[in-house]
Design a protein that fits this description.
Layout: E1 33-34, H1 55-62, H2 68-75, H3 80-83, H4 86-95, E2 103-104, H5 111-117, H6 126-138, H7 154-160, H8 164-178, H9 191-197, H10 201-209, H11 239-255, H12 275-281, E3 289-292, E4 296-305, E5 312-318, E6 328-329, E7 332-333, E8 342-345, E9 350-352, E10 376-380, E11 383-389, E12 400-401, E13 404-405, E14 414-417, E15 445-446, H13 459-463, H14 470-473
Parallel strand pairs: 1-2, 10-15
Antiparallel strand pairs: 3-4, 3-9, 4-5, 5-8, 6-7, 10-11, 11-14, 12-13
Helix pairs in contact: 2-4, 4-6, 5-6, 5-7, 6-8, 7-8, 7-9, 9-10, 10-11
Biased composition (Low complexity): 472-483
Protein name: CAP-Gly domain-containing linker protein 3-like
Organism: Grus japonensis
Amino acid sequence: MTKERGGDPPAGGVPPPPDPPSPAVERRKKPVVHPAAPAPLPKDYAFTFFDPNDAACREILLDPRTTVPQLFAILRQWVPQVQHNVDVIGNEILRRGCHVNDRDGLTDMTLLHYACKAGAHGVGDPAAAVRLSTRLLALGGDVTLRSRWTHMNALHYAAYFDVPELIRTLLRAAAPRVLHSTCSDFSHGTALHIAASNLCLGAVRCLLEHGADPALRNSKGQVAAEVVPDPTDMALDKAEAALAARELRRLLLDAVPLSCSLPRVTLPNYDNLPGNLMLLCLGLQLGDRVRVDGGKVGTLRFCGTTAFASGQWAGVELDEPEGKNDGSVGGVRYFICPPKQGVFASVSKISKAEEQPQAPSPPRSPPGPPARAPHKARKDKRGYWFGVELDSAGGKHDGSVFGVRYFSCPPKHGVFAPPSRVQRVGGPREEPGDDAPEKKVQQVTVSQPKRNFPAVRTPKDITSESSFSRRSQCPPSASQCSQ
């Protein structure tokens, strides 16, 4: 057993005083890049990672003979024991005379980069990361510096790992310089693009509150709302991520002001007139039922400028598959709808659809069993599913999930269940005999649109990765780093 510094505790069980900090050294005037080195570990140590809470490890951490490259190697270990003590380790590096903008030779990251990465919820500790970041900024830490492996600056790391507390700290120090800085590893998107693509709802809200522009486009012509993963492409076991994606898209689309929709000859300054005001003047708003060129009927989903043509356009989701797209043109998404139900037209060809009188509904049958027979069964990666229309509003949908319709029923009357959880009600089941032929229940399969998109990785997935993975030692997409 390793003997702690300071000897045995005095009589009475009073713990010894804490270890004194390492002696401070005069700080270097210019930043340098430190060579790569392995992380130090105590002799006969049972673990392969450094734990600052262990007495033997802490003795190494506070030992002035422990070098800065070794301390940087400790910071690279992606385990909670290290990341929760990022401020302690960072302060030890500064006490050894390092410049605040010194870099780790293996990852090309500064202490500020490591602090922002250590704010990741789960593996890291936002409070410890904010403490170290605040001190680094006070000492002159440069928020604009980037790692040459990922081209990410400190704000990009804070957005990637969804740490609003760090975003606020960084923007208080250098908002004009970094708020709209782009990153080549994310198609030259801003921090808002990075957060949106990674389903970082907290980071997106924080960036919008501090003035991030949701209308800026990356090198692919996409605004932040368009890089959010499509919730309809996610498996059923990703329901939480799908809900976050839908909320993100709504938040980002609502933050983008609509563009004017009248022809240039009518309004010379039509590019600067807000679209919501123009729609108000026309007696329209997004979500209204409209008729396209006096014929096809649908719902108004988009109004503004596009990348495929000059001028202003209206995007309509048709009731029937009589359109040309799914709300995207040339790889740029403007709204979401099923394939062949999206169409774009000039505002002059859009008019409000007249409400059709509803036919009287047939009288409902007397109350019966709590659930009706299954409408359809759908097949996905986990087998067959029955879609059931309930008699009361105790369900979850109207027969559609994530924009894909499997059957129709009133809202909150639809529910899906596997066959093992569905049974016939309303009387005893007839057994086949001489006078009664065997009754069979036919399963009807409704095909689901083919989806070939890759699985979405959420920040929760990222922060729960193994500490021995390649990513644990390098920042995101730093595939060039070697152990």
